[in-house]
Amino acid sequence: xxxxxxxxxxLESILIxxxxxNHVRSIDICEYMGYSKxxxxxxxxxxxxxxxxxxxKDGYISLSDAGREIAExxxxxxxxxxxxxTAIGVDAETxxxxxxxxxxxxxxxxxxxxxxxxxxxxxxx
Length: 125
Prior knowledge:
Elements: H1 5-20, H2 26-33, H3 37-49, E1 53-55, E2 61-63, H4 65-87, H5 92-105, H6 108-122
Antiparallel strand pairs: 1-2
Helix pairs in contact: 1-2, 1-4, 2-3, 4-5, 4-6
């Protein structure tokens, strides 16, 4: 099952929330993403069905190994693309917003090239 951009965004949000708290619930995702309870509930059902998340008996959500792998990939892309855009003069807010759009569409090959450039030219300064 190939995840759409929205699924990737949910996984990334669960990763970020789980770094702040051991207990992530659907309501936390609603508040963090600004989505309605029915939208989040539907998405969690699809992610659970796809084996990207685990939900325990108390309703706490965690990432499966497959979900964590995708979430970490998207999160790394977001951070690196944000850093790259700010390094070339884009203001932080715009850079973060644009990185959020780019992180889902960029090919692995292009991302690796940008990553190598950033490592070589941006982070060494």
